[in-house]
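Below is how a single chain appears once it has passed through the pipeline. First comes the sequence as given, then the structure the pipeline wrote out for it. We keep one example in the README because the format questions we get most often are answered faster by looking than by reading.
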Amino acid sequence: MAGFDLAVVGAGIVGLAHALAALRRGLKVVVLDREARAIGASVRNFGFCAVTGQAGETWARARRTRDVWVEMAAKTGTRVEQQGLLVAAQRVEALAVLEAFLATDMGAECRMVRPQDYPLRKMEGAMWSPHERRVESREAIPKLAAWLEAQGVRFLRPVLVKAAEPGVLQTTAGQVRATRIVVCPGDELLTLFPEVIAGLGIGRCRLQMLKVRPRR
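Resulting structure:
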C-alpha cells in the first residue's frame, strides 16, 4: 500500500490530532490501529480541556487547543458538556493564592466569586474561569475519527504495526508506505522501538477516575 504523505500509528487523540493537522495541510493521510475502536486513555478520561493554571507558551497552546476542540465539536456534532471552571478555596490561605493568581496574566478574564453564590460546604471563596471546556470523550473520539474519514483520511483497523522503518510500515495487512511516519502508541511500549523506550525509563501509569452527581 503506497502513496501516503503521512502514516499515523495509533488512532487515539494524539494520533487523530496529527491526522487533523496533516489533513489541514492538504496531505494524504492513513491512520492504523490495532483495535477496532479506541479503548485506551483517550476514552477513559473526562474529556476536560484545561487552560487555567498553565503559564507562558503552554498557556497559549492550551487556549489554542481549546479553540480547536470547540471548532471540531461543531463540525463533528459533538456536544460541549461543560464550559468554565470553578476553583474553590476552603481556607483563607487558599483564597490568597487565588487572588494572587488573578493578579497575573494567567488570570485574564477570571474573577472571584462569593461563597454564597456557590453553596459549597466550608468554602471561603472561589475563582471562576471561563476558559475550560469539556466533551464526553467516549463520544468525541469516534465522531472525530468518523469526520476525518469522511474528509478522506484512510483508516486501517484492526491492523497491527509490527515494525516501523523510514518510509515503510510492516503490518498485518502488508506493507504501508508513506513519506512521513508518526508513531502514537499510547501506553503500548513493547511492539515498536522497545529498546529506545526502555532506555528512557518510561513506565505505565494507572489513574482511577470517578464521576459524581451533585445532590438535588
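The chain is about 30% helix and 25% strand.

See the next section for the split statistics.
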